[in-house]
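call fold(seq) -> tokens
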Amino acid sequence: MSAQLPGPTDPAHLARSGQTLSGTLKVSELARLAESVREPGGEVSYELRFGEEEGVPTLRGHVAADVTLTCQRCLGPLAVHVEAEPQLGFVDSEAEEANLPEGLEGVVLEGGENLRPGDLIEDEVLLGLPLFPTHDTGTCPPWEDSVELSPAEEKDNPFAVLASLRGGSGDED
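ret:
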């Protein structure tokens, strides 16, 4: 991961000091994201601004990534741009989430649990990926006729034997 990105850290400490973390990560450095894409060669850029609002440690940021997925329509490569604007407030319990300033999503860190900025960035990109990535309608490359279809062979009718047993045309009743 980027040298600018710290390991597990207390978000309250980052908020009190008003730190901003910014940089880029390679998709290959983010294990869960690398498993979710077709080619792990892309990059993820991020800017995470920590602060305090109404006494609550907050994070407001921007995360962007360009990744290659597999089109579910043609199974070809599909370039996808993902952007996310995390607006988070860090609290100690679910009960405190109700008191968060408006517009913030609560993140519960119980018992002094630390924030992993790399995991947060990866989560934001994963949440932004489409569930069923496809090219726009009509833009998938045409299928190649790699399999030659043989002309339909005329097969014997299994009921033809019954017609002959009946003695002819079958008009007798």
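Residues 11-128 form one domain.
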